[in-house]
Amino acid sequence: MAAEYPIFKARVPGRGRPVLISILGALGLACAPAIALAQPLTAEAYVVKAGATDLFERQSAQLMRTSRNPEVAAFAEMMVRDHMKSTEMVTAAAREAKLKVTAPELTRKQTADLASLRAAEGAERDRLYIEQQKAAHQEALSVQSTYASEGGVAPLKAAAGKIVPVVKHHITLLDKMK
Which of 11, 13, 79, 166 is the most exposed place for a label (fewest CB within 10 A)? Predict the structure, then answer.
C-alpha cells in the first residue's frame, strides 16, 4: 500500500528510511487548531455576529420588498421589521451589560451574497433570496441558540433566548416557500 500511495511515506530525520504516517494521526494533528478554536462565544463576538446576521437579513430584504411574488415580498417586509427589532434587543442588552456597541458590519460572504442578489432578476432573484435566507437563518439560529444556552452575560443571554423562537419561525416559513 505504501508503494501505491507515496504521499503517506515520510522520512524521519536521522533515520534515512521511510515511515508510514498514520492517517488518523495526521488528521488528529490537522484538527487540533480547529478544536482549540471551538471556544465559547464571547459577549463581544456574539454582539458582532448577531449584528452582522441582522444587517444582512435586513439589507437583502430591502432588495426583495418589490418582488412580484407576494409571499417573498411579505416575508421581506417581516425580515426588515423582525431583524430591526432583534438588533435593538441585542444593542439594548449590550448597553445594559456596559459593553461597547459599534455599528454592525457585513462579512465578506454576506457582501458577496448581496452582490449576487442584486445581479439576479425575477424568479431567479426570488429563488436565490430564499436560498440565501435559509443559510443566513441557520447561521443566525446557531449564534442565537449558542449564546442563549452558553452565554456568560445575562442581559445578552436573555435577549438571545427571546430571539431564538423568532428565528425558528422564520426558518419554518422559509421551508414552506416555493
Answer: 13
What does pTM read for this prediction?
A: 0.76
Determine the angle formed by the axes of helices 154-176 and 43-64, rounding to 10 degrees.
Answer: 30
Q: What is the pLDDT of residues 117-145, one digit of tens each?
A: 999 999 999 999 999 999 999 999 999 99
Q: Are 49 and 41 in contact (CB under 8 A)?
A: yes
CA dihedral 145, 142, 60, 117 (to 10 degrees): -170
Q: What's the alpha-carbon Rg for the chain, to the nearest Å?
A: 22
Residues 83-108 pLDDT 10s: 999 999 999 999 999 999 999 999 99
Cα first-last separation, the chain: 50
